[in-house]
Write a structure and sequence with these properties.
single chain; 64% helix; elongated; binds arginine
Length: 466
């Protein structure tokens, strides 16, 4: 008979029991569940709701149950709907009546939500650590190649030269914002709902502040109905995961592209590529592709949570049992993808010459030639047209802008002087981009200062919360 045996004459149908069970998923929260029960029992004793003997029996019994689950020997039984029932049953088998007193002033609903919040906090911290490792890999690559020039693209067409370091740091900032989203999700999870009971609070003199402190929450929730039905912190976590996966997917796409023979910008380490079962020459960027592909399921997890929640009246509804599986999947997926991407980035070889050779194509200096004229007084629009014509000339003759003679330039505008050819050097035009946040070497060095400062702050944020 189930825990609520009193009111029932028959057991639930076998298949339906399995259908309704959340144990296969929520057994992953056993540590949180047991921690929550210990905190609750201590508080019940402190408030004189249960006696000291029962409280210590409960605590010892729960420690035993935890050790058994840790060891992998715990006999999970699907007739227990969820981890909360498994733990309570195992406890009562060990300590008898005292076990039956643990549930005083408590509902499974607030157990569910307390455990889930604790789990979400743990997940956020894990992901924040993974995020920092990934950013470290990007910083290292940027630092190892401070002067490497590559073509910058818009519309995937050659646009202007940029430093490879600048490109790496662009991803740094995406992942830095992901860290901020994860921190926010952490804060949203960081209130204790314990003591909300089924939906309305209880008649016992619970000390919610005490259990909150014991469990490491920064405060307590304000409304028992909201506490039991709020899953917003899971949306925040899922959202952080979704955006981070989108960023990873973009990075993966560039890795795939850069490792083609057409680009050849990087050579992936053998440790992060696979061969083909039929084509002996192949070296495939499988893992970058897989990261790109896995972004889809994380978006799916988010949508599933949204759809599940949107029509629910207050407070707890069984639908909500579906909340954890997708979040766990999103978190594990992101965690694995960040780890794989960090390794792949660290181990990839950067082919500086290929990048430079590519930057030499596609008239990357065109904007600078137009700026040259504009700085000498020609309206920029007119300068744009002059240079466009020069590019057309180059295309017809199969030349680069820097191959044109001074006479060619002067035929288009007499504002051109001898110094024009010097101005077309890729390094000069790159480094001339001195705008704060621009790609010139000096600007990138300054950017790196900001990178280091934010990195140190984020590392400290993890340390404080760990
Ligand atoms: N297994 C359920 C869950 O994870 C527990 C629900 C408790 N409450 C209830 N009335 N069924 O959500």
């Amino acid at each position: 008979m189930a825990l609520w045996g009193g009111r029932f004459e028959e057991d639930v149908d076998d298949f339906t029991q399995r259908f309704g069970a959340s144990l296969p998923v929520d057994r992953q929260m056993y540590e949180e569940d047991i921690a929550g029960s210990i905190a609750h029992a201590r508080m019940l004793e402190r408030q004189g709701i249960i006696n000291a003997m029962d409280a210590s029996d409960i605590e010892e019994g729960l420690e035993e149950v935890k050790a058994l689950i840790d060891s992998g020997a715990f006999p999970f039984d699907i007739n227990d709907e969820d981890i909360h029932m498994s733990v309570e049953r195992a406890l009562t088998e060990r300590v008898g009546e005292a076990g039956g007193r643990l549930h005083t002033g408590r509902s499974r609903n607030d157990q569910v939500i307390t455990d889930t919040r604790l789990l979400a906090k743990k997940f956020c911290l894990e992901l924040m650590k993974g995020n920092v490792e990934l950013r470290r890999a990007l910083i290292d690559q940027a630092e190892q190649h401070p002067d490497t020039i590559m073509p910058g693209f818009t519309h995937l067409q050659h646009a202007q030269p940029v430093l490879f370091a600048h490109h790496m740091l662009a991803y740094y900032w995406m992942f830095q914002r992901d860290f901020a989203r994860l921190s926010f999700a952490y804060e949203q999870a960081d209130e204790s709902p314990l003591g909300s009971a089924a939906l309305a609070g209880t008649t016992y003199p619970l000390d919610r502040q005490m259990t909150a402190r014991d469990l490491g929450f920064s405060g307590v929730t304000a409304n028992s109905l909201d506490a039991n039905s709020n899953r917003d912190f899971l949306f925040d976590l899922d959202h952080a995961c979704t955006v981070a996966m989108m960023h990873l997917s973009r990075l993966a796409e560039e890795i795939v592209l850069w490792s083609t023979s057409e680009f050849g910008f990087i050579t992936l380490s053998d440790r992060y590529s696979t061969g083909s079962s039929i084509m002996p020459q192949k070296k495939n960027p499988d893992f970058a592709e897989l990261i790109r592909g896995k972004s889809g399921r994380v978006v799916g997890d988010y949508v599933a949570l949204f759809t599940m929640m949107k029509g629910l009246p207050l407070a707890y509804n069984k639908d909500m049992q579906e909340d954890k599986e997708g979040v766990i999947d999103a978190v594990h997926t992101l965690s694995d993808c960040m780890r794989c991407a960090a390794g792949m980035i660290s181990a990839m070889e950067v082919n500086e010459e290929a990048m430079l050779a590519s930057a030499d194509k596609g008239y990357l200096a065109a904007t600078d030639v137009a700026d040259y004229l504009a700085k000498k007084g020609m309206p920029f629009r007119e300068a744009h047209a002059v240079v466009g014509h020069l590019v057309l000339l180059c295309e017809r003759r199969g030349l680069r802008l820097e191959d044109l003679s001074l006479a060619d330039f002067r035929a288009e505008s007499d504002l051109f002087d001898e110094d024009i050819t010097r101005q077309l050097d890729l390094r000069s035009i790159t480094n001339a981009r001195t705008t704060e946040g621009g790609t010139g070497a000096q600007a990138v060095a300054e950017q790196m200062e900001r990178v280091r400062a934010t990195f140190a702050i984020d590392e400290a944020a993890i340390f404080i919360r760990s």
